[in-house]
Structures are given as C-alpha cells and as structure tokens.
Write a structure and sequence with these properties.
The chain is α/β, with parallel strands linked by helices and 269 residues long. The protein contains nine helices and six strands. Helix 6 links the parallel strand 3 (124-129) and strand 4. The chain is globular, with a radius of gyration of 19 Å. Farnesyl diphosphate is lined by residues 43-48, 61, 64-65, 68, 86, 88, 93, 104, 107-108, 111, 160, 215, 240.
C-alpha cells in the first residue's frame, strides 16, 4: 500500500469526520460508519496520464494495472470491502487501434495469470461480467481458470467487467427470459425486477452502492445501467494510475455523508 500522506487528511476528507493523520484510525472510523457493500470503478485516464509524461498510451495502461492491483489489495485487505467491480474492457473498447487492443488483452492475461496465486491465498474470489467468447482463447482459458480456482473464496469478490456493456447485458437477459417464456418456463405476467436482475451477469452480487469514475469524465458509459438505479456516484479528476487507497477512502467518506433515500421521503424525527 502507498504510504499515508502525512497531514493531508483534513484536505482530503473534509468535514463531518474526526480526522487523524494516520490511516489505520481513519479506516477504523470508516468501517464503524458502515462500508458500502459494493464499490464499482470506471478506471479512466490511462492515456492522458501517459501523454502528460510523453509516454505511449500502453505505459498508461501498464500503470493503470498497477493502480488496480494496489486497490484490490487495499480493498480486500486493510479496508475489508466485500465486493469490488473494475471496468477493465468495454464492448466499445474494440474500436481502439488494434495494437492498443492487443496490448490490453495481453496486459489482462498477464495480470490474471500472475496474480491468481495471491488471489487464491488472500481469499479473493474472481468473477467476470461480460462476454468472454470474443476474447483471445488463452485469456478466456486463464479467466475461467481464475474463476474456478477462487470459487470457494469469499473475503473480497472481485468482479472484472471484461468485454462488458450494459445494453448488451440487458439484451442478453431479454433473450434468456424470452426463451424461458417460449418454452413455457416463465409466465410473462410473472416477469418482475427480480427476473431481470437475476438474468444479468451480476445476479450473484448486490447492486453497487457507489460508482467511482476517474479522470474528470461524468458519464456512466454503458456501465451497470440497470444495477445503478440508486447508486451514489463519485467523480474524481484524478487520472486512474494516480488513484490510490487514500482517494478510495475519500470517496467512501463522501458516500457515507450522503443521505440515501431510495426515492422515499425523510423519516420524521
Ligand atoms: C481507460 O483509460 C482505461 C481502459 C480502457 C482500460 C482499463 C484497463 C486498465 C486500468 C488496466 C488493466 C486493468 C486491470 C483490472 C488489470 P483511457 O485509455 O480511456 O484513458 P484516456 O481517456 O486518458 O485516453
């Protein structure tokens, strides 16, 4: 984990929290207030991070993978988060130059292959949201292997959104439900929100409480559109490779300060 930035916490966490300059105390306070069950992240800004340093975009993705690794370790370790979704590759990302797509596929393959032993021993369960069929055969194999090898783990559920697009996920769910209707397994009148939720890739995990997007962009970009109906959003100007545990804590603190009403009105005191 990155060393805590001495003296920067007031600046980072703002009002509403008793502030201490040591991270363990801060983590304890945040845990006491109740962690979100599921945090999902749109990791954006790798290319701009590289450009600022006169480096090729691939160097930004490489640094982005390191930031992902640091966050997984922190979330599953000191913080004790239960579900973390990372948007690693979208259905729209195929439109990038072939060289960049190939690099990302290789990076993801290396990441999964190299980290699997650590995931296994640290209790991380790997699950995937997305259509694996279009991925290179070796990557598909390594992803399936990681899913199988970590299936019994439960400390942190790491959901990797890979070749994922929310609209495509909803179309897939509609087809599955339509097939069940056609075969007489489902009565159309009985289709409800649960029927749809349970036909999505995320059927086994709770809806995200908090979605974080880095790099100053303020869009969901086809990410968890159904699941995000009541999700709190946190937008950060930080470019993904610079996003660290300290800013995750800041995002969670802000989330905890918000008043989630799920469309209802405030209870009278
Ligand atoms: C967005 O930055 C990032 C991606 C499309 C890829 C995300 C991949 C990683 C962070 C690395 C691998 C991930 C894991 C889980 C190991 P961008 O290229 O769109 O940046 P830009 O908007 O500045 O060009």
């Amino acid at each position: 984990m990155e060393p805590a930035r001495e003296g920067k916490f007031e600046e980072f966490y703002g009002e509403g929290l008793v502030l201490h300059s040591d991270m363990p105390t801060l983590i304890e306070q945040i845990r006491e207030r109740g962690l979100p069950q599921h945090v999902a992240v749109i990791m954006d800004g790798n290319g701009r991070w590289a450009k600022k340093r006169d480096l090729p975009r691939t160097a930004g993705h490489q640094a982005g993978a390191q930031a992902a690794e640091r966050l997984i370790r922190f979330a599953g370790g000191q913080l004790g988060l239960r579900h973390l979704t990372l948007y690693a590759f979208s259905t729209e990302n195929w439109a990038r130059p072939a060289g960049e797509v190939d690099f990302l596929m290789e990076l993801l393959d290396r990441f999964i292959s190299e980290k699997i032993a650590e995931f296994e021993s640290e209790g991380v369960r790997v699950v995937v949201s997305g259509d694996l069929a279009r991925l290179p055969a070796a990557l598909q194999q390594h992803v399936r292997n990681a899913i199988e090898r970590t299936a019994e783990n439960s400390t942190l559920i790491l959901n990797v959104a890979l070749n994922y697009g929310s609209r495509q996920e909803i179309v897939r769910a509609c087809r599955m439900i339509a097939e069940h209707v056609a075969s007489g397994k489902i009565d159309p009148a009985k289709i409800d929100e649960h029927t749809i939720s349970s036909s999505l890739y995320t059927s086994e995990i709770p809806d995200p409480d908090l979605i974080i997007r880095t790099s100053g962009e303020m869009r969901l970009s086809n990410f968890l559109l159904w699941q995000a109906a009541y999700t709190e959003l946190y937008f950060s100007d930080t470019l993904w490779p610079d996003f660290g545990p300290d800013e995750l804590l800041r995002a969670i603190t802000q989330y905890q300060d918000r008043n989630r009403r799920f469309g209802a009105v405030e209870e009278m005191e």
